[in-house]
Design goal:
globular; single chain; mainly beta; about 50% strand
Length: about 100
């Protein structure tokens, strides 16, 4: 698998009481043609792009809406440069995932 994007970032996943967070530079997001892997140090989440409904990309944050029942529902990637890099990679490689503002 070819890595399209690998970036250190902040990540939060879940809701209280099961909330996992990792601040920059300890979190890591890796994007491939068919999946995204989020490494939050104590947890690792792997989502197929086919399971992702959309990426909601704001200036400082990316929220991932997905339908994989085995992975925590609320996942956010934090960081101004990370959000821009994810949007750019999705557009550049024409990945099969929807992006909403």
């Amino acid at each position: 698998m070819t890595i399209l994007l690998k970036k250190a970032t902040g990540i939060s996943a879940g809701e209280f009481p099961k909330l996992v967070t990792c601040k920059w530079p300890l979190g890591r997001v890796t994007l491939y043609h068919d999946r995204i892997i989020l490494d939050v140090r104590v947890e690792k989440y792997e989502l197929l792009l086919a399971d992702i409904e959309h990426f909601q990309i704001n200036i400082f944050q990316v929220n991932i809406e997905h339908r994989n029942p085995n992975i925590i529902k609320d996942i956010s990637i934090n960081g101004i440069f990370t959000a821009r890099a994810i949007r750019k990679a999705i557009e550049q490689y024409r990945l099969p995932v929807k992006v909403v503002p």
